[in-house]
């Protein structure tokens, strides 16, 4: 791993890192599964983390054993219905919904002139940041509609570093999902996992919760 002093930027996932919108995603996908008479399986919650809306829909439809039974138009409609439910749930978001310690960490990064970027697959990320009151912290945000591949492909993190004017190796990438950690590692950035060790075993640095995210703690693990 690189030395702490070489790090100039931080690339953030959104869901499950900056705020726990994953619970709203799960509720919306669960409702769609019920609508389509797909039995909800516990592993869906982890499989849907950090991936695009289209990839998430594929997880559900693949579970039926007949994913090709639906037309492209039907799949687009399902994705839209899910997103409409999700957006309705997001109206509950406020600065009180920010993950523990995250405002302090973002403030610390900004005060020490780190470049801060958002590498989220969510098309709703700008709305979420606005609801949380955090938009001004981020100097760059990747537009997921411009990407060719989703996580675990490294494209989103490579693009985010580029938008910040940095090389991935000069950045930390912070994620709570396996697919995100794989993407960060493949990009060449330093992966920081938030969550359980058995889920995020590939993370180069790991914390149980966002409350542990400080530059001092990261420096300690980069020694």
Structural class: alpha/beta
H/E order of the elements? EHHHHHEHEHEHEEH
Shape: globular
Query: Residue-averaged pLDDT, rounded?
Result: 93
Number of helices: 9
Helix content: 40-55%
Radius of gyration: 17 Å
Strand percentage lies at 5-15%
Major sheet size, sense and barrel closure: 6 strands, parallel
Question: What is the strand tally?
Answer: 6
Largest sheet, spatial ordering of strands: 3-2-1-4-5-6
Question: Span from first to last CA?
Answer: 9 Å
Contiguous runs where pLDDT drops below 50 for at least 5 residues: none
Oligomer: single chain
List the helices and strands and how they pair.
Blueprint: E1 9-12, H1 22-35, H2 44-47, H3 53-62, H4 72-90, H5 102-111, E2 115-118, H6 125-132, E3 140-141, H7 155-163, E4 171-175, H8 178-187, E5 190-194, E6 205-207, H9 215-221
Parallel strand pairs: 1-2, 1-4, 2-3, 4-5, 5-6
Helix pairs in contact: 1-4
